[in-house]
Amino acid sequence: MTGTHDTLTTDALVDEALALGEGLGRPLRYVQLNSFHNGSTGTVMCNLHRGLIEHGVDSYILWGRRHETINDHERCVATRPGYLSHGALVRLDEGAGFHSKHDTARLLRLLDEIDPDVVHLHNVHGYWVNVEMLFGWLADHRCQVRWTLHDCWAFTGHCARSESCPQLGTYPMTICKRNCARNFEDKRRVLTSVPSERMTLIRPSHWLESLVKQSFLKKHPVEVRHNTVDRTVFKPTPSDFRERYGFGDRFMILGVASPWTERKGLGDFVCLACGLDPERYAVVLVGLTRKQMKRPPKEIVALERASSPQELAAIYTAADVFFNPTRGDNFPTVSLEAEACDTPVITFDVGGCAETVELAKSVVVAGYGNGLESVTARGVLLDFARRAPKYRTLLLEAA
């Protein structure tokens, strides 16, 4: 196996594509596939797409859900009946990634028309594509394959977020929990079918790199390429956000996720907010669903997803600290965005979270999993508020 390469994602992949296109006598044809057009993985896909186009590459992005087709080079390739039936069947047989045959057949016909030089996979789970059909096509085609593994789904029997699969009651949801071993063997058979000389695995963090090197995918070359954010957008952005919500000189603690779940630390945020003095602290959560916003604790300012990246940058900038209590993330983009806006981050040392922290004033909290997460986080945040006020001239008193 080749040695690990550690660099930033978009620029490196654009440079690689330009090198692959040398001598072709035509633009390189580069196709990316992902479950969603939006969200963190969709943003990674779209950023690379824009970079490739700027350098003359014939770039395509194809996705399964959450956005309609935009043009011939930016297409939604799954249908609503397709992904709904896929999800329903998974609840019965746990066969995530092994349905959607009709939609996948249409996708493969489109790939035949494009005849790509490079196919870059992102998330192939999400109820939108049949991986057995897709990898059969990739194995038979001449294209180079790049696969950014944003989570653990590819090499587990069930879970997307854990290498040891203890979370059988979580996504992908199913009432059948007996087929984990079968799924694991099916994935081993299918996902290793592309020759290692034509498929390179890209991991956004060293943490996930270490896991893939222990998996059945270890025969493939692995590269660590950290995701980046657009620093022309995510930068210190003054706004009237604090004034609009009447925060005054209160210490603002921000959390951002989409969606907010227990794995993202929603419960930790609720416990934290209920234990803070609302006269001294303002707790803001961005990215809640309308259902979640119906009954938020009175101590939390609950907001839906920001309307634009620019609005989100302004909210990051308004905060004194960004708290990311995730229980396990590969390389959380939200922490990158906050630091790019010069807002320090407090996060637990889980998954690849520590690899996202660069600012000297940010804090990585060890000891997650000891049952004292909320207590520990509260202590760290209070200490941070005393030491590093951003908008106030006086330090906060002990809570």
Automatic annotation (TrEMBL):
Entry keyword annotation includes Transferase: yes
GO MF annotation terms: glycosyltransferase activity
Keywords assigned by UniProt, alphabetized: Glycosyltransferase, Transferase
Top-level taxonomic group: Bacteria
Keyword Cytoplasm in record: no
Organism of origin: Collinsella ihumii
PANTHER family, alphabetized: GLYCOSYLTRANSFERASE WBBK-RELATED
GO biological process: lipopolysaccharide biosynthetic process
UniProt-recorded name of the protein: Glycosyltransferase
EC number: 2.4.-.-
